[in-house]
Design brief:
The protein has about 60 residues and is mainly alpha-helical. The protein contains two helices and no strands. Helix 1 packs antiparallel against helix 2. It is elongated.
Length: about 60
């Protein structure tokens, strides 16, 4: 997906991160440490994916 449109992929990942933040807040509100940990790991994974997409986009050869 990132090869075709990195901007669209990053936008989608940003939405996922915002939704994950809401799940983290809910876990904190409920005192659910397990859910908090799971959602924090998911958020870290999403951020790592954004970083990979950015690197891929920055190193893609430019069309002439």
């Amino acid at each position: 997906m990132s090869n075709s449109n990195p901007t669209a992929e990053i936008s989608g990942l940003q939405i996922c991160i915002v939704n994950t933040d809401a799940q983290i807040d809910a876990a904190l509100d409920n005192g659910d440490r397990r859910a908090f940990r799971v959602w924090c790991l998911r958020r870290a994974s999403l951020i790592a994916r954004v970083e990979r997409v950015l690197v891929e986009a920055a190193t893609m050869p430019q069309a002439a």
